[in-house]
Amino acid sequence: MELTFTDGTREVADVVIGADGVHTTVGQHVTEAGSPRFSGICAWRCLVPADSAPEFARRPVQTLWLGPDRHLVHYPISAGTQINIVAFGPAYDWTTESWSAEGRIEDLRAEFADWADDLRVLLAAAECTGRWALLDRDPLPRWTNGPVALLGDAAHPMFPFFAQGAAQAMEDAAVLAGCLADQWQAPSAALRRYEDIRRPRATRVQQMSRGRAQSNHLPDGAAQQARDVSFSSVDPFAHNGWIYWHDAELSVREARAAG
Length: 259
Hints:
The chain has 8 helices and 11 strands. It is of the alpha+beta class.
């Protein structure tokens, strides 16, 4: 297969992998995915030195705050020296989708101004914040087309509510490597096996992450109370063990054994 780049250079490859993100160009040669759409949600991210954070935020646990139209999660990182804060709320007119975009810390604090005192104390310790809009796209009907395949956000962009965007991309890569290592298969056959293994699982995670956009942001009421009961009645790691305990390399071996 011959590739032509924007600078006019050309390369010949047996396999082309589009790991070019939610705005994928390679994806146009696989399926008619359409442009990603803005979800109406934006995210903020802050890092707070642990020495400046209140004691409750320094506990070695993940803490999740839920409320109408918004939620926030925080946990220690860097051996407990910093507190990572990620918050989600209405995007309003914010449509910038970039990890490097800067937001205004005043806007973040204003979004949670009427929340619990503990949370407002934590946000008061943050000095700056990143901000980006969340994009959404329906699951793709296919990931491969002959010698071309998609990987990561190009194949399955997902909301970060299960912290699985990068994790699912790494699983893709592990399965893709295992499939391509089977030298007896033609490259296109190896890519089809990769898709057969990965697409059902990644699609399930993608759809679950999308569902959290609604359940995390419920208004106060019966549905919110039922959600809270469901959260308190299960061990989240055991309940979602199928996500966190998955062995991507084993899935390749099982598919190989099944023929």
